[in-house]
Amino acid sequence: MCGIVGYLGPKKAKEVILEALKRLEYRGYDSAGVAIFTDGRIEVVKTKGKIARLEELLKERDLEGGLGIGHTRWATHGKPNDINAHPHRCGPIVIVHNGIIENYAELRRSLESEGIDFYSETDTEVVACLISKKYRGNLFEAVVEAVEELEGSYAIVALSEKEPGVMVAYRKDSPLVLGVGEEEYFVASDIPALLPYTNRVIPLEDGECALMTERGYEIYQGGGRVKAKKEPKFISWSPALAEKAGYKHFMQKEIFEQPRAVADTISSLFSPDDGSFGLFEEDFAQVIKDVKRIRLVACGTSYHACLVSRYWFDRFSKIPVEADIASEFRYRDISFGEGELCIFVSQSGETADTLAALRICKEAGCLTLGVCNVMESTIAREADSVVYTLAGPEIGVASTKAFTTQLVVLFLLSLYVGMTRGVITKEDIVQIAEPLVYIPGYIDEALRLDEQLKELARKFMKKEHFLYLGRYLNYPIALEGALKLKEISYIHAEGYAAGEMKHGPIALIDENMPVVVLAPKDKVYEKVKSNIEEVKARSGVVIAFTDRDNRELEGKCDYVFYLPKAKEYLTPFVYVVPLQLFAYHVAALKGCDVDQPRNLAKAVTVE
Ligand code: AGP
Q1: What is the predicted pLDDT for the residue at 287?
Q2: How far apart are the C-alpha atoms of 458 and 585, rounded to whole Å?
């Protein structure tokens, strides 16, 4: 949940690292710092607060060197302050770290008993001192020996004041990507940080150690003991894709990118005119027809996408299907059966709980599939197969375009599984999927509610509680709408199955409780209409979203917004959009940090 960077090359490391850190700030922004090799010394500059503050401090420092490391922090051990900010130094060693060292307390006690004093509360400083203790003039060796004593997750980049021109990076359970430029090398937690400098990347695997010098790079596997030959992969994302492009926030840009992102994802996976799928490599297609059960596992917004897809697997694949929150799934004592396909949905491809669940299912012999947005991410690489959403880099912490593109992949997957199981024919698929091509346009139409929703946000931004209600395919959309509002505006919001109102939540209803209701004219619409009446009978304030041609709710609700009428089974694509916009405007009007909400980070790579 932190962003770490390293640079070795002819450019000014300070400038490269600052630019790269800004592209990683969504991973954590409690504090930031750099360590630059200058005139034979490693100068460390670090501060509580965001990178902008660090940039101010660096203006006063003439750090010319071409080797350095940097860090933007999401605090785990030790509160956010100057002392706990990374990089951390011990003896000649200076490091930055992303992850959690689970045995840091006993390591610290052992090092203290050997006379080492600590200045910070962090687990990272313990790692620096462990490397320093092992150091006998060879940084690579010292890192490889030190990590053998670590338990937990860690991506580390290390320098030694005694070895100018040497940078060592090690990865276990926290993402780390090597970037290969023209006689220059980069390491970073995530690909967007590298894009201004190189598209040639080598994601490090667990237990891999990279040694970078002016002569080139070497990668060692097996805890850094076995030299490996790994060639860079080309990532087609451009730097511009990771820019705001005139929008006020990344989240706003990403909401408005959804028509294109959804269209790109559809066209990369499926051809509506003949129903052909470019979905899987042929060999994966062979095994999918023997699948007898589907398990969907994810966290947060990605979990909501899984919940929506359950209805599609029920209807189009006619297969037993479950959806689990990864942090719960991994602690169940599941009796896996034969022919289980486990699908792991993750924008970042690095979420610790989802990755842990993947490893459990692989261990149990299940077929595993990743649905990821970040190419070559850990989940993408460790699953048996992967399908990518083509949302492009999603920088805003609140996930939007990744969600709707996840829905595309899962919808098409449900049709594909149905076809391989002989439940539906290719002709059925053309007929079922044909309306999908209208979805980008429907999303575009829904985006035109932007100004109206901004006005609505202005009216409700001071409310302290919201209830979001939906049924059937839009129950998960109610959950998603509530999550969007709470995670960026810090207003308490709860998503609920509308049918559950009478089992508790109706007790909450009064004139201070705005209730957002998703009411497409589908097979449960009449039930939702009754729920609206129940809320109004208790003086609740109802904000309803319904189909453009349905005027029944006028006069029944306090606010009604009209959306394009999509096929019943495709309404989640459309109904989530106004909820994203509403949450965005409430947060922006409240002056919240929309792209970097407090306490959150884009990828939860720690448990
Ligand atoms: C979504 O807006 C949140 N930022 C969060 O719930 C996120 O969806 C969750 O952490 C899962 O992330 P992933 O898709 O990268 O695995």
Answers
A1: 80
A2: 8
